[in-house]
């Protein structure tokens, strides 16, 4: 998805869709679905064969949740924030479900398309990531939202900067802080 398409169309399309324009919903679906699918494919690319949550299922569940929600999307930032939170919630719910069934045996490996990828999260680590993000929200909600957009919505730094109306450098600094903070939190959990 190009920044131009995102900037010029998403907010306007959201408004038209919420006014009942089915063509706008189709356009939003085409634009956003491919981006969410790309992001989900990245998550799922390193998973074991026969994984119980497939890319298409993840994207479809995000879409169903977003489009069935009784929410008025303010703008594209609001939409992508909700999309990233929805994907995160679905992955956390799935991880918890698997964890409760298997108690860690053959744990689901979640990988992220950021520096956090190198950690090679397994199921328990993903839940720890979720908990760390919850604590980061308490510390600095904006930094947590920016990290969430990076990890779960798959937006690049320029797209996030455009959403917040700030410089790329500002987003880079906030992501650097957020990632370092999350790494520290994860290290504390592992050492406990």
UniProtKB/TrEMBL annotation:
Single annotated GO MF: sigma factor activity
Record bears the keyword Transcription: yes
Keywords of the record: Sigma factor, Transcription, Transcription regulation
Domain RNA polymerase sigma-70 ECF-like HTH: from-to ranges: 8-186
GO biological process: DNA-templated transcription initiation
Gene3D superfamilies assigned to the protein according to its UniProt record, in alphabetical order: 1.10.1740.10, Winged helix-like DNA-binding domain superfamily/Winged helix DNA-binding domain
Protein species of origin: Paraglaciecola arctica BSs20135
InterPro entries assigned to the protein according to its UniProt record, in alphabetical order: HTH_Sigma70_ECF-like, RNA_pol_sigma-70-like, RNA_pol_sigma-70_dom, RNA_pol_sigma70_ECF-like, RNA_pol_sigma_r2, RNA_pol_sigma_r3/r4-like, WH-like_DNA-bd_sf
Protein's name in the database: RNA polymerase, sigma-24 subunit, ECF subfamily
Family, per entry: Belongs to the sigma-70 factor family. ECF subfamily.
Keyword set includes Transcription regulation: yes
